[in-house]
Amino acid sequence: MKSIFTYTYKIIFVLIFCINTKQANAQVLAAGDIAFTGYISAGSTDEFSFVLLKNIPSGTTITFTDNSWLNTNIFRAGEETLVWTSSAAMLTGTEVKISGVGGSATIISSLGTCTGNMLSLSTSGDQVLAYQGTVASPTFISAIHMNVYQSTPPISDPVATDAATWDNTNSNNTTASSLPTGLTTGSTAIWVGTFQVSASEFDNAVFNCTGVPGTVAQIRAAVNNPANWTKSNGSPTAPVTVPSGCSFLQLPQLMILNLLPN
Fold this sequence. Notes:
Oligomer: single chain
Number of domains: 1
Shape: globular
Largest sheet: 6 strands, antiparallel
Structural class: alpha+beta
């Protein structure tokens, strides 16, 4: 009779093989393979952070921009874009912070390297969109929206921002954006705002670790839920600082992932 250790070994081998196979193909990311965990628009530097929800190899690139996505399915031009490149293989649950003076070519990344210009995040509302591919043909991975339009008195904004479409805009406006193609608010993107409440637009916000550690699906749901974020206006102070510093993965998952070669 084969021992339980034989079966356990086989199960672990299969798990490692599956994860390794997944990791080998992780250069190409899909919607929900990262999630934003925080942003600062009112500090001395602009900052944002994200968590990886898929293992990635060294050399993986993700493009970030604060250019709006228009409802004609093209980018509005005129703002900043940067490209983040992983400098080593990184595991699911890794959190990355990117910071710098908005518009500057000097960008600091807690992990990996960046080229381009640091995003200049407006305290009047903005967005950060993450994608792979080209400007003409992007594949969106995730996005965070901080703008809140209110169209009820005493506010008379052109539209009311909502979770389904965001600002549903085709206007020449640096703060407004439509929801990027292929993303869904609450699962693969987040809107840090409340429908018809302009006061829910905040300068800074960070995920507060509610709902983690967990599985990848649980992390994605928790981080993309604005109820799990702490928000502030003005110069950022604790607890609204990025990155979140959360422990995202459950220990058994982390132990399996740590068996993988770098």
